[in-house]
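BUG: 3D viewer hangs when loading the predicted structure for this chain

Environment: internal workstation, default settings.
Expected: structure renders.
Actual: progress bar stalls at 90%.

Input used:
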Amino acid sequence: MQDPFISKLEKHLQNTLPGQEAQYKMAHGVRKRTSSAPPNARKAGVLALLYPKQTDWHIVFIERPHHPEDRHSGQISFPGGKQENGDPNLASTALREAEEEIGVPTTMVHLLGNLTELYIPVSNFLVAPFVGFAEQHPSFSPQPSEVHAILEVPLKQFLLPSTQQKIDLKITDQLTLRQVPYFNIQNKVIWGATAMMLNELIEVVKKI
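Structure tokens produced before the viewer hung:
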């Protein structure tokens, strides 16, 4: 029998989603709302994976490796990546990337639904976020070239108002973004597109 929380979450994901309104609560002020992605936008899929650990539902993130030339260097994100020719759909992309990056077999993940697509202008990606769960704690096996570290966070921690904060982020030597909304988790900064997609999920969870 499926966990009551998971059953309710699946039901809410099939209803009208909070959408951009929830996403842009965690967007920096300079980011403009986009009604649609350009025709040449690349497509990607990411996975918000829930699983039981001890007595709580957890969600997993990856910390990207630190590369000076990578604009996403060191950032915290959901496992995921760009759609490849062999992927029949973006859900398959998200599942494949999760298996490649953190070693969770696709057969272990039960998809519950999706969140609102988010266009990322800086990389020209249209990202489709999917929500899934595993019935037991996965045995993570990070891919060294893609994953510096794995971050496991109790889902309930994101429901605490103190988790949402603002920070000045130095992007390059010439650019610092002021008062950027972010989730402060284990002294890690979850911001940008990941925080935007995550906030929509959190607003769905709050309805349960």
